[in-house]
Every structure is written in structure tokens, then in C-alpha cells.
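Q: A reviewer asked whether we had any structural model of the full assembly, not just the individual parts. We don't, so I'm hoping you can provide one. Inputs are below.
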Amino acid sequence: MTSSRPSLYLAGPDVFEPDAAARFAAMKRICAKHGAVGLSPLDGPAPERPDRDAALAIFDRNVELIRQSNAVVANVTPFRGPSADVGTALEIGIALALRRPAFGYSRAPHLYPAKVQAGRSTSTKQADAQAFAADGFAIEDFGLFDNLMIVGAIERSGGALFFGEEAAHAVAPGAGLDLFETSVAAAVRHLRSDRQAQQ
Amino acid sequence: MTSSRPSLYLAGPDVFEPDAAARFAAMKRICAKHGAVGLSPLDGPAPERPDRDAALAIFDRNVELIRQSNAVVANVTPFRGPSADVGTALEIGIALALRRPAFGYSRAPHLYPAKVQAGRSTSTKQADAQAFAADGFAIEDFGLFDNLMIVGAIERSGGALFFGEEAAHAVAPGAGLDLFETSVAAAVRHLRSDRQAQQ
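A: Here is a predicted structure for the entire assembly that you could use as a starting point for your response.
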């Protein structure tokens, strides 16, 4: 990055918002305000046909943008279930392995068990105190907001997690830009202090 | 790998099965039958207390096992929503970036839009033919079974995807070992042909 502005890859289910272009334009303005460049999954050409080849072209471009970035800022608010969007989770894994710090933010501050129980009606607590959801699978409970791989990847990558104070259980179009800005500011601070340490 | 047996990291929500130890023992036997070694997320010591430090220790061990592996075999059957387990998705991202081929299997052969609609009551189709779910977000529709990042990572890593023929919409304890075996056989064939090509 030397004298140039740090680049942040913008990961999240925001790409599925009804007006995703406006969402990413707003996110890029927030990045610019903090002296960074936002790299958006929407930056490339729109697919001509929504087929497998178009999907792979988007995949390749996203991976390339993560490689070009100095850090990833990821919306890990629950999406269509108790956990973060899987595409976002996969991108955090790529970031970790490529040694990019990953910063995450979630509108929902709840711990994972509360989020599983919000979506399903019943869970049973067994003799060994391990809780199971209605689907028959154990409910991971390490006092974390999501699967430990998400929390571990963000922490071990050198990034950080930020939570909203709302009782929001899921993503909502247009929401969460405040938390996004907090995460961008933290990522920029981290990258600048990292750079100073290397000088 | 030279003359030793290939190692396969076993990714999936199988770790949350009520009898996860038996599940992974069965998966390791299947790996051995195909001349491979199964590396299980349960191989390490059980956590003493289910706290953040224990979670990070498990995270570190899983990442190390992926590094040690020659390929990843991942259960990408829908888990608590229309998509694969997020921990599994994140591990596929790590595998991709570390250049390990990732093989995936899903009991549910359905395309992603059908899985989103199975879980939610309504979706609206707008004028531009883009369908939206009840949550207000677009339903990705590239003719794929899950988020394009999952499919792209598996394909670009050199791996392959296998589907069940059942009308299964989600994971179920004990299910899917047949598909797992198909994936293991494919991973071993891939690694052996890769090795031959390098000789």
C-alpha cells in the first residue's frame, strides 16, 4: 500500500439487496471518507445470461478482488438462517488463507444458540447439557455469535468483529451502514498501524 | 504424498451429529477402504470448557488439518437454511486459497431458488424477472444448487460436486454416507492422477 490508499473488499449479502448498486455506491463513499478504496463484487460487467459460466466469471472476479485488497470488510449478519451468508463465509476463508485481515459486522448481537432457537420452534436439552435443535443436530455453544470458524477466522486474521445493538435477527435491505462504517474505520486504522510498524 | 496415502480433511456439519464420534469413525473407515486417511475436526482433545479459547483452539486445529490434507471432502447439504453450513463454506475457502482441491456432496439436488422457497412462504417476481424472497433480498439464480461462491470454489479448486437423488432438503443425522463415499473415491482418483501427471 505504501503511499496509496488501502483497498477494502466489501463482502456480504448486500449484493442481493433490491438496489444493490446504490448500496455499494454508499459503501464506497464511506470507504472514501475514511481514506480507503472499496472494492465491490458488483464492479465488473453484469452477466449477460444468468448461467454457470457467468457465475464462474463472478467467482473469479471476486477472488481476484480479494487478492487485490489489503483487508476484507464482511457483513456477517444472519442471512436466511441463524448464520452469515455462505458466500461471505467462504470469502472470509479465502482472506484468512491469503493473510488479509477480515473485519466483520453483524446487526444481530445475539449468541448463536438464541439465533437457532429464534428460527425453529423446539430444541431439547439432553443429560450432558448439550442442546440439540429440532433438526437433530447439536447447537454449537461457545459463547459466540456464529459458528466458531467465522469468529476464529476473523480473530486469527488480525481483524475484529462489531455488533449492532438492535434486536435485529437478520439482514434487512438498507440497514447496517453505521456498523459498516465502524468496521471500515477499524480496518483502516489496523492497516495504517500495520504499515507504520513495518517502517 | 509420494508413496504415502492421501489425506482428506472431512468438512461438514457432521460434527454436530448426536453421535459425531461414530459418524467420523464411519467416514474414516470409508477413507481407509479407498486407500486414504480421513482427517477429522474431532481428532484433537475435547474442549474442557466450551469457551472462546476452546473455540479458537478448535479453529486453529481445523486450519492446520486443512494444511496437512491433500484435499477437502465437504458435506454441503443445506444446514439450518437453504445453504451449506457456514463453517464448511469457510473451510472450502481456505482450501481453495491453499490450493487443495475441494470435493462437495449434497443430499439435496435442488437448485438454490427451490431451497429458498421451501423454507419461506412467499417470494415475489418483479418486472425484470429477478425473484425476491420474503426477506426482501434477491434469490440468486444461476442454475446452481447454492451460492455461486460455493460452486465456483469447488470447481476452480479442481474438485467436483455430487448430489443425492432423494428429495432431502436438509442434513439428517446418519444420512449421506453413500454420497460421502462417492466423493472420497473421486478425490482419491483425482489425487492419484495428479500424482501420476507430476511423475
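A: Points you may want to mention in the reply: Residues 177-198 of chain B form the longest helix (22 residues). Chain B has six helices and seven strands.
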